[in-house]
Design brief:
The protein is mainly alpha-helical and 474 residues long. The chain folds into 3 domains: 123 residues, HUPs (Rossmann fold), CATH 3.40.50.620; 124 residues, Serine Threonine Protein Phosphatase 5, Tetratricopeptide repeat, CATH 1.25.40.80; 173 residues, DNA Cyclobutane Dipyrimidine Photolyase, subunit A, domain 3 (Orthogonal Bundle). It is 46% helix and 6% strand. Helix 3 runs parallel beside helix 4 and helix 5 crosses helix 11.
Length: 474
């Protein structure tokens, strides 16, 4: 009789195009298990918004396994110990998983391989991290040449189908009750906006993907306008692996072929720009493979001397941080973004850059403080992407914007036509027309309930540039 195969799931919560599940099903009866391990990630254990998403994603996945006559087993604890225990219970010696590249998962995979036959597969990126190399075989540290090299290797591998059959073990091991994990907020229940904004699970991911296939051609022209719904909003589905980037890539090209326009499948400007975002995911993961502490340490070490204002010791900085977190800075585009984040667990990408720049350069607060806030509040909080994006904005990364390039949030708001977006998420400004809604204080239109600017743009810019000059003179 074929031996029972354990499939260890993490951020690959899907049946289709799941290499670990596909290959395990070919080898024998399958026990799929998700282990909630809050110990191994330490300060990067899932935050509140991610836990909300995780609950619903696991709930959906369990239903999918049930339709195949199988089950999803839930365990909680340190992953190596729980998987070794499960293997002993069911008499299994082989564990299949899709490789994960966060530093803690790499350590856990190494430890698990010392105790069991660990079969690692590649399943969450366009190309396996580490496989896109320079001419001398080294790893890229800059996005643009990495992107060119990856595009030259496309298309990615073919999609894998859902296994035709998932063999059941002789008996099923015990499983935790998902509700007992208390992943959902209750006191208070702050997730109403998330419930209204999102549908979770593999089926929902495919619905969104098909919607996006019909709208991606507008992406290049309209992606920076937060008032338009011309972004994919696939990021949490991709993060939790409810869909793979390979599926997204093939779905787009299949659509082009069905429409009879296969010749321009590679030349659609909207698709090409979006494909670049998928490649950025790969690049971010390649970055943390080279620099595992990218979320906690400046890549450019001169910024270790930067005179950040510390909210832990500076009362004024603490007040400014709270105003930023609550969306009460007096800058409408910043406040709209931060309130959208709190309400929906997500923020438009252009506004992510504006709000991050504001915290770092207008408020002079360490980018790592923002990284941790986004980690807790984003449903798509991804270790590699979150860290890479924050270091890019801060100018501290290996491939990053210059610190001296300071976004002007008021002009950004008007440039990218954010008026409708602001009125949606800052109800105090709902009745204010353009152009006044972008800067109501300047035009004398600030409602009584809306705060004054916590810092003037020019003064903040001068302060930031003085701090930068100080470390350069060092």
């Amino acid at each position: 009789m074929p031996q029972t195969q354990i499939v260890w799931l993490r951020r690959d919560l899907r049946l289709a195009d799941n290499p670990a599940l596909y290959h395990a099903a070919k080898a024998g009866p399958v026990i799929a298990v998700y282990v909630l391990d809050d110990e191994s990630p330490k300060h990067h254990a899932y935050g509140g918004a991610s836990r909300w998403w995780l609950h619903h994603s696991l709930e959906s996945l369990a239903e999918s396994f049930a339709t195949k006559g199988s089950r999803l087993i839930l365990r909680r604890g340190e992953a190596v110990a729980e998987l070794a225990k499960l293997a002993q219970e069911v008499g299994a010696t082989t564990v299949h998983c899709n490789r994960h590249y966060e530093p803690w998962w790499r350590k856990v995979q190494g430890k698990l391989a010392e105790r069991l036959d660990l079969q690692c597969h590649d399943g969450n990126y366009l190309m396996p991290p580490g496989s896109v190399t320079t001419g001398s075989g080294g790893q890229y540290k800059i996005y643009t040449p990495f992107s060119r090299a990856l595009r030259a290797q496309l298309p990615p591998r073919d999609e894998l189908p859902v296994p035709e059959k998932l063999g059941a073990p002789a008996s099923w091991p015990a499983s935790d009750d998902l509700a007992a994990w208390n992943l959902l907020p209750t006191r208070p229940d702050w997730a109403g906006g998330l419930r209204d904004f999102w549908q979770v699970g593999e089926e929902a991911a495919h619905r969104r993907m098909h919607w996006w296939a019909d709208h991606v051609d507008d992406y290049h022209d309209k992606r920076n306008n937060p008032s338009e719904d011309k972004v994919s909003r696939l990021s949490p589905h991709l993060h939790f692996g409810e869909i793979s980037p390979i599926q997204v890539w093939h779905a787009h090209h299949a659509r082009k072929q069905r429409s009879g326009s296969a010749d321009d499948a590679r030349t659609s400007e909207g698709w090409s720009t979006y494909e670049g975002e998928l490649i950025w995911r790969d690049f971010a993961t390649n970055t943390i493979c080279q620099f595992p502490d990218y979320a906690t340490a400046n890549h450019r070490k001169e910024f270790d001397r930067f005179p950040w204002r510390d909210p832990a010791t500076d009362e004024a900085a603490a007040r400014d941080l709270k105003a930023w977190q609550q969306g009460r800075t007096g800058y409408p585009i910043v406040d709209a973004g931060m309130r959208q984040l709190w309400q929906t667990g997500w923020m438009h990408n252009r506004v992510r850059m504006i709000t991050a720049s504001f915290l770092i350069k207008h408020l002079l607060i360490d980018w790592r403080v923002g990284e941790q806030w986004f980690w807790d509040t984003l449903v798509d909080a991804d270790y590699a992407s979150n860290a890479t994006n924050w270091q890019w904005v801060a100018g501290t990364g290996g491939d990053s914007n210059m610190f001296s390039r300071i976004m002007a949030p008021l002009s950004q708001s008007e440039k990218f036509d954010a008026a409708r977006y602001i009125r949606t998420y800052v109800p105090e400004l709902k009745g204010i027309d353009e152009p006044y809604v972008h800067d109501p204080e300047e035009f004398g239109r600030r409602p009584a309930g809306y705060p004054r600017k916590i810092v003037a743009h020019r003064a903040a810019r001068e302060r930031a540039l003085a701090a930068l000059k100080a470390i350069k003179q060092g």
